[in-house]
Structure formats: C-alpha cells, structure tokens
Amino acid sequence: MFEKIERVPGDAILGLIEAFKKDTNPQKVDLGVGVYKDAQGNTPVMRAVKEAEALLLKNETTKTYIGSHGAPAYGEVILPMVLGEGSPVLEAKRASATQSPGGTGALRLAADFIAHQLPGKDIWVSDPTWPNHLGIFPAAGLTLHKYPYVDAENRLDFDGMLAALKQIPEGDVVLLHACCHNPTGFDLSRDQWQQVLEVVRERNLLPLIDFAYQGFGEGLDEDAYGVRLMAENLDEVIITSSCSKNFGIYCERTGCLIMVAKNQEQMENVRSQIAIVARENYSNPPAHGGAIVSEILHSAELATIWREELTEMRDRINTLRRDFVDALKPYNLDEKYACVAEQRGMFSYTGLTPEQVDRLRDEFGIYMVRSGRANVAGFSHENLPYLAKAIAAVN
C-alpha cells in the first residue's frame, strides 16, 4: 500500500539546522532556529524552572491522567496572566482554559472547534504569518485567506491591513498576533489595536489571537494589551497561549486554549465542546510543563525570580536590535535597517532578499530563512561586527 507514497521536502528551518551543523566556517552564525539563545549561543533552562522541577520531583505523588482540559491549577495561573489580575472577563466567568500540547496544539484545537461548530466560516491570516498557520487550519478543513501586513518597503502596512479587514465577510475568523509578530517583528500600536477592534466589531468577525510570546516584547502586561482589549469589549474571542518562550520550556509542549464567551452559560457550552475536541486529538495533554508553570506562578518567590529572568531575556533581545543597527553605521546602512530596532520579539523581517540570504549563507556561513527573517537572539556582541560586514558585502 505504501508503494505510491511520494517523498516530500523536509521543513526548511530543520534543513537549515543540518546545513549549519555541517558548515566548517569557524565564524558561522545561526539566525534561523526560533528559540531563545543566551550570549554563549545556548538555550538555557531558567533558574525558576529548575527550582520548580526540584520541588515537583520531591512532592509529586502520581502520574495519573490530568483530564482533557488539563490540570485546574494550570488554568488558574494562565487565565490571569493572559487576561489580567482582576479582569472583568474572569470576574464574569466568561473565560475557559484548556491546557494543550504547546501553542501549536492550542491552534489545532481552535481550528477543529471552528471547523465543527462554525461550519462555513473561513479564516484570515496576515501576509506573512507563521508558516505553520498555513498548514494547521487547512488540515482541519478550513479555507484560509490572507490580509496584507508588510508592504514592499518592509514596513507595517496597517492601512492595507485595515482596508482588507473591512472587506472580510461577516462572521469569518481573523487571526491576529498579540505581540512579537512572527515572522516580521512588526507589532500594532495601542491606537491601531483600537481601530482593529472597531472593524472586528462592525464586521462581526471572530478574532483568534495567537499569543506565543507574552513578555518578550515590552512586558507581560504591555504585551497583553490587544488580547485584553478584545476580550473585554467583544462577546466572543479565541486566544492561544504558549509557555515555550517565556518559560523556556520548548520541549515540554505547554500551551493553553482560552475561549471567551458572552456569559458563563455559553462559556460552559463551549467548554464542553472543547473537551471533546481535545479528547479526539490526544485525550490528555502532557502534564509536566503545566506543573512547572503552576509551581512557579503559585510561589511568590519563584514568580519573582521568573519575572526577573524573563526581563533579562527581553532586554537582551531589544538591546541587540539597537546594537545591530549601530553596527551598520560605518557602512551607511543603519537607516536602511532601522526597522530592526523598531520591531519586537525574537524575529526580524530584515528586508534582505532571498538572493542576499543565499550569499550570506554561501560566502559567510550566516544562516537564516530565505524570506530574510532572522532570529535576533542569534545576534551577539561577538558576531555583530562580522554580521554587519557580511551584510554590507551583499548590499
């Protein structure tokens, strides 16, 4: 039966990993893989995580199932982190949390829920968006469309975005990035979020907000502005949250699907359907990552340590953005690449063309996605002079 199955190309980013490993250039630089790296190029385990795991190892008494919605203790800490302490949405019991296998798992839960419970509704994503969005939603049977997000000059095309949102058929789903837009790094201002809210409300659209990088842009609460604005001013919102980046627990696959409904009764109805979707996908989510997050956020001491570590990571990335632009000044390229300092999160749409990216890889051992998306966490004070010189050579 397998004789006619064809081989398909591997993931482009995974291919970059293999090519980087084989490169013998001692100055090679990896700007492709989407994980945080410290100044030494490592993806460390956070101190708060290590201490939480030690406590779990000491106190854990069972490995039993945690249920389709996950551990209640996890939802208790994720909901206020995302929606805010004292949130009117939480006070009205309008929100439900379902622990998921990473943010990707939450997106798939959302996709299946939309496909089964809201038949005929299409989904609209930014152009560009995280490549896996383009696979997850069609795999669930949804029709996917795109709205403009970045213009030809590598700038946020908010006018084009807003105009497109105004043309989306009523009742369709629109996917928005809460912060640290992947792959561009261009985020909406508070005023722009307000304008998007008005269009979403006017067109009766259902926002699905991908919140994968809370705390990596401006701060835990600052990055949640758009999420909380939508949840507090609309009857229905879907939010997918991830702890991979802000807790550094990538391999633990720790995410959450948050459903916001008009009232508690409707929320309970929706929650019952999400349990079925989760059950049919993977039955129960993995427990360990959620237990780590719960342990940290239920402890004032560990939560303080975690916030300090997260601030250090965020500040390092934002500093590297500015230092990158400064490193290009001797080549008179700082204005051309000034957008890198304005963007937020781990990723940057540099504006480099596919041909320039190829030259950087072949001539200098600098690896990034051909779209010009670079992982800023791969910058370091040691490699910035080399990067600047290489970029000047291909411009």
The helix/strand order is HEHHHEHEHEHEHEHEEHHHHEHEEH
Distance between the termini: 51 Å
**If you compute it from the alpha carbons, what radius of gyration comes out, rounded to the nearest whole angstrom?**
21 Å
Please bin the fraction of helical residues: 40-55%
Q: Number of helical segments?
A: 15
Q: Main sheet, how many strands, which sense, barrel? A: 7 strands, mixed
> What is the number of strand segments?
11
The largest sheet has its strands arranged as 2-8-7-6-5-3-4
Low-pLDDT segments, ≥5 res: none
Q: Approximately what portion of the residues adopt beta-strand conformation? A: 5-15%
Specify the structural class: alpha/beta
**Rounded average pLDDT:** 96
What are the SSEs and their pairings?
Blueprint: H1 12-22, E1 29-30, H2 47-59, H3 72-83, H4 88-91, E2 95-101, H5 102-117, E3 123-127, H6 133-139, E4 144-148, H7 158-165, E5 173-177, H8 190-203, E6 206-211, H9 225-233, E7 237-242, E8 254-260, H10 264-281, H11 288-297, H12 300-327, H13 339-342, E9 347-349, H14 354-364, E10 366-367, E11 373-375, H15 384-394
Parallel strand pairs: 1-10, 3-4, 3-5, 5-6, 6-7
Antiparallel strand pairs: 2-8, 7-8, 9-11
Organism: Halomonas rhizosphaerae
InterPro entries: Aminotransferase_I/II_large, Asp_trans, PyrdxlP-dep_Trfase, PyrdxlP-dep_Trfase_major, PyrdxlP-dep_Trfase_small
Cofactor: pyridoxal 5'-phosphate
